[in-house]
Design goal:
Layout (H helix, E strand, L loop, with lengths): L12 H6 L2 H31 L7 H54 L2 E3 L5 E3 L1 H11 L1 H43 L26 H9 L3 H10 L12 H30 L4 H20 L11 E7 L7 E6 L7 E6 L9 H20 L9 E7 L7 H5 L3 H8 L3 H20 L7 E7 L1 H10 L6 E7 L19 E4 L8 H10 L12 H11 L16 E2 L5 E2 L7 E2 L12 E3 L2 E3 L2 H10 L12
Helix pairs in contact: 2-3, 2-8, 3-5, 4-5, 4-16, 8-9, 9-10, 10-17, 13-14, 15-16
Length: 610
């Protein structure tokens, strides 16, 4: 919880929602316990040393007692700092929590009354509000009432922004108190704390270019020291080599799991095992264990298919974020990045990584069948680097309405798109080849919208895009995505329910044509508003867009070398999953198609049969 202290605008609604003040309080408790443990261990040693003068005289005894006294002084200094930090954290958590509840209460009240609330706290009368108002009272009276709603929105804006400012002020108070508690200890970013000077460490949100330039100025010894001592400064920096990020994140993971286990036990004792706090602590522990399992190489892993833990973020967003690659993207000729959608959490990273392994295997096979391309390599990345909308978990914690609202909006995708765009650029920046890698962006479900927005979020090195089960990508042409014609591909099964995100509003809008009583003409207005707002920000249906190449999902035969039977896909989740035929796992036509694009062999892909 550390926004820019120079700008109130840094405190936003999404940031406030993502915060978990109780975690800060738990860290405070952990610090207090650590302080007690330090003194419990050191005091007997100090006492014993002091009493040794009666039987251990001379230079060696004096040296021992001097060193023990120094250790006691330093340990006491650490314990005192931990005590002060514990007080600052536990009281600060309550302060932040109170202001957060107030701010979100104002925001939720506004949205419950159909106002739009921007991330900076600006409240405005919404199109949905107007269409519903017209449906209820007619256009003439709606226009008269509209100005009152606009005025009320302005008042609400003042209230929400003040509440956000108060929340930011509370955070800054806590930050100041914690810094003061540990003022005698140098931070990781202080260049004077290192055994070898390393210069100023770039901020966490530094650009890819800044990260790459800084890393290139370091010696091998300095890099090794950084990874070993402060891996959290390295593991998630886009633009830094994958090997370094993997080593840093693997170094952090055991400690994070141990901390999560401790948090779970503390929460169980404080709140009980039936509490939401315990469920949240358990979910975080499950996330980290899932990451550990996904990043573990299978037995007899093939050379070039080793797994790399490229991202491990437990502090930003409301859930753990991670990315695991199969193969090293820095050394591969072809790289894919798959972004998932609705209800995906890091507990799914294992399944996604296995799907990435199957995709890499199929892409490598196709290259092996292409004369002159046999030596090219592929790395595939499973990326859960943002917070996809959650319905199942929100239901578990009693807030399913919030989850349903999220999946119908583009906010999560927009935030994720910024992070994904930087991740793409980081892969190019750290690549070791003499030529830039061929990168394919792959998106499933809501993750396809995130992918589409990432490709529209500035320059990127992506050459091809494949989306499947997509509700929309907020674009009509490849050019809007920064791609050339013929480099954007779409797949959708016949029975994928995602089509309702595009077809549903239009169908519902015609309900009154059939004389359904009691609806008051509301649905046509809502449907018109949805379409008028570019299908809720999702854009036109990519599966019906002739500007994108439509690929086959029905059972087919491969087009490379000796033709192979390729099972078809159905529903919303089959696309990346292997099929079992005669007891063996084989790629579906959907995985085959994605692999063709990832390998740079688009001629192998099976297009929709008209």
């Amino acid at each position: 919880m550390n926004p820019d202290p120079n700008a109130v605008a840094a405190m936003t609604v999404s940031r406030a929602r993502s915060w978990k003040p109780e975690t800060l309080g738990l860290h405070g408790i952990a610090w207090q316990l650590a302080s007690q443990k330090i003194m419990h261990e050191v005091t007997p040693v100090t006492t014993g040393a002091a009493e040794s003068g009666g039987y251990w005289e001379g230079g060696s005894g004096d040296a021992m007692r001097t060193q023990v006294a120094t250790i006691h002084t330093n340990a006491s200094k650490v314990a005192t700092a931990l005590d002060l930090g514990a007080t600052a954290a536990t009281t600060g958590a309550l302060d932040i929590s109170s202001h957060r509840v107030t701010a979100l209460k104002h925001v939720d009240d506004a949205t419950a009354n159909l106002y739009d609330v921007a991330d900076d706290g600006t409240v405005s009368a919404s199109k949905k509000m107007y269409t519903v108002l017209v449906a209820r009272v007619g256009a003439a009276l709606a226009m008269k009432t509209w100005q009152k709603l606009v005025d009320d929105a302005a008042v609400r804006t003042t209230t929400v922004k003040q509440a956000l400012a108060d929340l930011l002020a509370a955070d800054l108070r806590v930050e100041s108190a914690i810094r003061d508690a540990f003022k005698d200890f140098k931070s990781a970013a202080d260049p004077n704390r290192w055994a070898t000077p390393i210069g100023a460490v770039p901020p966490a949100n530094a650009s890819v270019e800044t990260n790459r330039h800084w890393w290139n100025t370091l010696t091998d010894a300095q890099r090794t020291e950084l990874i070993a001592t402060y891996p959290d400064l390295i593991g998630n920096r886009d633009g830094i080599p994958v090997e370094a990020r993997d080593a840093a994140n693997r170094g952090r993971l055991p400690g994070l799991i141990a901390l999560a286990e401790g948090d779970q036990q503390t929460v169980a004792a404080q709140f009980g095992t039936d509490s939401d706090q315990y469920k949240a602590a358990t979910a975080k522990l499950d996330d980290l264990r899932a990451v550990e399992k996904a990043a573990t190489n299978p037995e007899n892993v093939a050379p070039g298919s080793e797994r790399k833990l490229i991202l491990l973020d437990t502090t930003n967003g409301r859930q753990t974020r991670a990315a695991v690659s199969v193969g090293n993207p820095d050394k591969a000729d072809h790289v894919s990045v798959t972004t998932p959608g609705l209800d995906t959490t890091v507990t799914s990273i294992g399944g996604m990584t296995n799907e990435a392994a199957a995709l890499q295997k199929e892409a490598q096979f196709q290259l092996s069948q292409e004369p002159g391309r046999e030596g090219e390599s592929v790395a595939t990345v499973a990326w859960i680097g943002y917070d996809p909308p959650q319905v199942k978990s929100q239901e578990e914690f009693g807030d399913i309405a919030a989850g349903v609202s999220e999946v119908g909006q583009t906010g999560q995708a927009a935030e994720g798109g910024k992070l994904l765009n930087q991740f793409y650029n980081g892969l190019e920046a750290s690549h070791e080849g003499s030529e830039a890698p061929h990168i394919t962006a792959v998106g499933h479900s809501y993750g396809s919208l995130t992918t589409g927005l990432a490709l529209q979020n500035g320059e990127h090195p992506v050459t091809d895009m494949v989306v499947y089960g997509s509700p929309g990508i907020a674009a009509e042409t490849p050019q809007q995505l920064g791609l050339d014609n013929g480099h954007a591909y779409v797949m959708r099964t016949d029975d994928d329910p995602i089509k309702w995100s595009q077809d549903g509003p239009a169908i519902v809008g015609k309900v009154n044509d059939y004389g359904v009583p009691g609806l008051g003409g509301v649905f046509p207005y809502v449907a018109d508003a949805w379409v008028g707002a570019d299908n809720g920000g999702f854009g036109p249906d990519p599966a019906k867009n002739p500007n994108f190449t439509q690929l086959e999902t029905h059972a087919s035969k491969s087009l490379e070398g000796d033709t192979r039977p390729l099972p078809g896909a159905s529903g919303h989740s089959d696309y990346p999953r292997s099929a079992t035929v005669d007891g063996k796992e084989v790629p579906r036509v959907t995985t085959y198609n994605v692999a063709s694009i990832v390998a740079g062999l688009p001629q192998n892909a099976v297009e929709v049969r008209r």
